[in-house]
Amino acid sequence: MPQRYVLDASAGIEILNRTPSGLALTAHTFRPGAEEWTVDHFYVEVAKVIRRDVLRGVLTDTRAGALVDGLVRWPLSVTQSAPLLRDAWTMRHNITIHDGLYVALARHLGATLVTADQKLANAPGLNVPVVAP
């Protein structure tokens, strides 16, 4: 069985921006034959951060457009949120529902969660392997 990884939005932003954290995550997880997965709301979460960074003057419109293009072209396997909601709900006391969906998918796939969010990486009760910078 191939190695599977589930990317959350924090990892997606770091990887798309090619930050030191993003490069570290890429080197550790993207290997030949590996499968990269995410939940459908990943795209909205990442685009929200890109928009926020444009409004704050952190990104130019041109750079933001390139990031959105990269996001749309990213060859990830994507699953819907709804079937994962019950599992995500069980984690509501430790993490957000958004994050719980990524963890639920990792559990379902027997995958490693990839995140740049240290709070999520260190949250109790995830019961999945985690890669964080």
TrEMBL record:
Single GO molecular function: magnesium ion binding
Top-level EC class as recorded in UniProt: hydrolase
Xref: Gene3D superfamilies: 5'-nuclease
SUPFAM superfamilies in alphabetical order: PIN domain-like
InterPro entries in the cross-refs: PIN-like_dom_sf (IPR029060), PIN_dom (IPR002716), PIN_Pae0151-like (IPR044153), TypeII_TA_RNase_PINc/VapC (IPR051619), VapC_family (IPR022907)
Co-factor requirement: Mg(2+)
EC number, UniProt record: 3.1.-.-
Domain of life: Bacteria
Keywords annotated in UniProt: Hydrolase, Magnesium, Metal-binding, Nuclease, Toxin, Toxin-antitoxin system
Binding site for Mg(2+): 8, 99
Ranges where the PIN domain occurs: 5-124
Function, in words: Toxic component of a toxin-antitoxin (TA) system. An RNase.
Family statement drawn from the similarity comment of this UniProt entry: Belongs to the PINc/VapC protein family.
Name of the protein: Ribonuclease VapC
Organism name: Jiangella rhizosphaerae
Gene (UniProt): vapC
